[in-house]
Design brief:
single chain; alpha/beta; Rossmann fold; 7-stranded parallel sheet; binds hexanoyl-coenzyme A
């Protein structure tokens, strides 16, 4: 779909780039000639991904909930590689839960990554772009429930809606510096991380019935959109959140996701909570920060 070396000369940071959607975007960017930095909490996972992708991939171990660590990471990139040209805000945390059962820590675990952490990264990069008179492009990976809201994932829905507003606000505030911000709102693109925490024990099959195209997303479709938004040639496109979901949210709104969870019993929820917590535990064991 794109010409070879389309992203040559680009230097792009992808948060949460070791796995899932972030890794897929990193792979396509590297293939198209970009230098890519990936960051995340699990050093081993990052190293493995960097090896797999070959090419020009650098890694940084970080928890983006730590604002000082975020600033230090961005400074390291500037010192070692030079100014970034692009940022993909992909790192996120999420799990399904009845909202009434969330503890303050549970809410914060998600909001601190998605809402606060993404702001820290965007600001640390943006202020350097402004100081150095560099242009830049930010893409945030959101979800269509920024438009519809969604039951059972309220901390994520609230946080991602905040980033939708950040995208619009900073597109206006930073437009004069040549900095643009757009967002992608994917419908279901199955990944391991989402599967374990949003469909524990099940799959995404049921959501396809409500989708006008009767299927989930194909990763290359998301990679192509992320490439289009990052490449040169459409710099006047800013402040937009673009849904890529087969018109799913237009057709069924929030019902396309978690409304069917209304029928779960307390025992079902208890079982799912254990599965999610086991997945969290396993991931935590691999963290190096
Ligand atoms: C209720 C839960 C819970 C659950 C965790 N908690 N899981 N509460 N139900 N299933 C509570 C814990 O009890 C604890 O509160 C608090 O959350 C923090 O838990 P930790 O495991 O200590 O948190 P932490 O190690 O910081 O991990 C953060 C995380 C984890 C968000 C909980 O899931 C994570 O790191 N996720 C990253 C990857 C990820 O989520 N990928 C999916 C992204 S999908 P107490 O009170 O007990 O101390 C996505 C949108 C996709 O973002 C949309 C697709 C359609």
């Amino acid at each position: 779909m794109f010409k070879q070396d389309l992203l040559k000369g680009k230097r792009i940071l992808i948060t949460g780039g070791g796995t899932g959607i972030g890794k897929e975007i990193a792979a396509r960017y590297v293939e198209l000639g970009a230098e890519v930095w990936i960051c995340g909490r699990r050093g081993g996972v990052l190293e493995q991904t960097a090896r797999e992708l070959g090419g020009n991939v650098k890694t940084h171990v970080i928890d983006i909930r730590d604002a000082a660590a975020v600033d230090a990471m961005v400074q390291r990139i500037w010192d070692e590689s030079g100014p970034l040209t692009g940022l993909v805000n992909n790192a996120a945390g999420n799990f399904i839960s009845p909202t009434k059962d969330l503890s303050p820590n549970g809410f914060n675990a998600i909001a601190n990554i998605v809402f606060h952490g993404t702001f820290y990264v965007t600001q640390a990069v943006g202020k350097r772009w402004i100081a150095g008179a560099h242009k830049g492009s930010v893409i945030s990976i959101l979800v269509t429930w920024v438009h519809t809201g969604s039951p059972y994932v309220v901390p994520s829905a609230m946080s991602k809606a905040g980033l939708h507003v950040m995208t619009k606000s900073l597109a206006v505030e930073w437009g004069k510096y040549g900095i643009r911000l757009n967002a992608i709102a994917p419908g279901p693109f199955p990944t391991e991380g989402a599967q374990k925490r949003l469909r524990p024990g099940g799959d995404f099959g049921d959501s396809t019935q409500l989708n006008p195209m009767r299927r989930v997303g194909r990763m290359e479709e998301l990679q192509n959109l992320a490439t289009f938004l990052m490449a040169d040639g459409c710099e006047w496109l800013t402040g937009e959140t673009i849904a890529i979901d087969g018109a799913g949210y237009l057709a069924s709104g929030a019902a396309g996701y978690f409304v069917p969870l209304d029928k779960l019993t307390d025992a079902d929820w208890e079982r799912m909570r254990s599965m999610i917590k086991a997945a969290n535990e396993k991931d935590r064991g691999a963290r190096t920060v």
